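batch job 7 of whatever, protein = DNA mismatch repair protein MutS
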Amino acid sequence: MRQYEKIKSQYPGVIVLFRVGDFYETFNEDAKLVSEAVGIALTKRANGAAADVPLAGFPHHALETYVAKLVRQGFRVAVCEQMEDPKFARGIVKREVTDVITPGVNFSDKLLDAKRNNYLCALHFAKDLIGIAFIDVTTAEFQVLQVPRNDLKDALSAIQPSEILYSKKQKAEREFLQSITSANMPFTELDEWLFNQDYAEQTLLNHFKTHSLKGFGIESLHAAKVAAAVILNYLAETQRNKLEYIRRISRFDLGDTIVLDAQTRRNLEIFYSMHDGSREGTLLAILDKTLTPMGGRLLKKWISQPSRNLSVITSRLDAVEELVHHKSLREALRASLKTLCDLERALSRIAIGRATPREVLLLGESLSQLPAIQSQLGQLQAPLLTDLYRAIQPCDELVTLIRSAISPDAPATLADGQVIQSGYNAELDALRQIVSTAKDRLLQIQQEEREKTGIASLKVLYNKVFGYYIEISHANKNKVPPHYERKQTMTNAERYTIPVLKEYEAQILSAEEKILELEARLFAELCRTVAQHAERIQTSAQAIATLDSLLSYAEVASLYGYVKPTVTSDDVLTIVGGRHPVLERLMPAGEKYVPNDCCFDDETRLMLITGPNMAGKSSYLRQVGLIVLLAQIGCFVPAERAVIGLVDKIFTRVGASDNLAAGESTFLVEMNEAANILNNATAKSLILLDEIGRGTSTYDGMSIAWAITEYIHDTIGAKTLFATHYHELSELEAHLHKVKNFNASVAQVGDKVIFLRKIERGAAKSSFGIEVAKMAGLPASVIARAKEVLARLERDEAARILEEKDLRSKVQKLASSSTAKDNFQISLFDMSDGKLRQALLALDLNKITPIEALLKLAELRRMAELE
């Protein structure tokens, strides 16, 4: 156990998988964690001094499966291998940690999504700013930025890291980080000395082999450079310093993107369906027609980080337009891309020594396609496409080298042999000749022994346990010569050896061992040569990813009838004949999605949308949000025509549910979301509100919705779509000049309601609640009773209405008063007004709640103001 404990002490907080023969074992607390996490038995040593040590293990061939299970749960895992054959070990077998796998640092196909980046992130909390660095070790993408503390949530939302590193000294920040990230985010604390400014600067200069970082554009980002150096140190430990393939670092500008918070991504169903959490029925599922893994990753990044840079958006749109108009060339390009492997991840695996022979061969074949792709691109004129043409860098010499080195029938692993082509290395060819000659001689020995013994069925065979041997059936064992040495008795035969067989076996095994060693050395040399071309391959891979994403946009536009939007810096939003990009693809056969218009200008800043449930209000809100998002990722949009003014953020409050784990009710969740919008939206934002104030009383809810509407109109000025069931709010149009009423139209035929799915000017006349309930399948007796109750309530209300007592009248007068100057005082003791007196005397002070008392007081004040 001493050897284990020494290794374990070097990896605190990491589960150490300790190789013992054909098993990986864990001990003590690690064993308890692993047993519970992956469901394997927890045992104890059967004998020896360590009899009471908890133990949990699994077979060596299941390593990747169990590592994946552990890392998915946020654990970090160190793999400790036997570095020598136990048969030849003197004393304890030498062991070393050969790999450390963490949520943010892994290369396993079982852990990685081919079309999603896996970012490791480091944070450095400086005095006024937070330095952020993030890297995808599988693609070598490495970026940094600095943000004020208030912007950290937005930054992490844009990056979507899989693991976050920070200093032990900044433990107090852990609670803050947990409050702004997902509940299962893995955090890793590192020693404070790693977060030193001077040390960081030197680490970066040494790694990039440069005298200055000015060429990377990060020279002035001092806090971010500390975070970047922390990442390099962390990778040096986990990847045993195999970091040469990380050749670049760049600056990430958060201000160039629309930050989509988790709420907006969820509400717009951008990546995951709200129904079942799957990818189906999402915007990504509609848009992703990419054919390469790197193209899929870039497309997802574009969608998660919509651009605010007009030139970037315009260049993408122009490229997509040309690809749409050149169908045959688009199809030819897509056919070429279909043959490519994951250039970025294959290169990274090769650079760190994890690639298989087949992966190297596949990389070579993929690189061989670059000249053809470049030639096809050369026929297009859009500026972005010509940039991609110039960015692609064919590697013809490297392709020739790989083809000459790796056998076209290369096995899955290096240990299987026959990896290197004949003719590539003279020494290897000579060793293979020795083996071939010796094996030919074995066939001769077999024939000679058959003739000597008269046993026609005598065979010379081989297995890993006994090597080469002669096999003779029991029926012929009486013919076996005395000098044959028995090695094994089988059910139907005997196995023997003879001196000459041992001689040639020694020659073959020695040569084969040398062949495996030489092939491993030649393969490693080839991988190092490939890694020397890393920058060229990475540049080409990024160009291919961009091309693949643009082709995906063009394919979607052609298939689904999207149009090129006009994107402008003007503060406008005009959509004619807009459609929901996802719902229109999910329509039953024979049905068409009903298009709708949307227009914002200087006179319209807030669309107040009323109408019954199920009439299409929510879908309309999402539709507008998705069309704006599509335009700002540089994609065509589902509409007849669209003019999109750049927005800086998209906010959504669509639906709500309890967050009981955090002690939050539906109403509190709703208010938190609304507060986030009101505190962070600007005049350049797009706000989508679908119901506010549902989780409380009618008066409370309507008061809150009213105040929010006024605040957005008067203070923020953002383009806003507000769908509400409070029809009384429609009175605001007469008093807030940039509020316009719209409704989700319906047609009533007898007692049936037909949803027309059309958004029209004007307020809704009814909510048709009972009709919707009937459509939902409520029992007929319940519907009938609801109608009776409604009729009685309407009669009582009609009899009760006395001027200001009518809610609509109150609303109208409140709207008028909201613009009046508050330049008077109310005397609560002036009872000359009969209505005020009656209202006060009508109060039952024994039954009224505190909130009702406040609302009543506000009502009484309004009554006095109106006099």
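notes: Confidence is low (pLDDT under 50) at residues 658-663, 801-805, 819-832.
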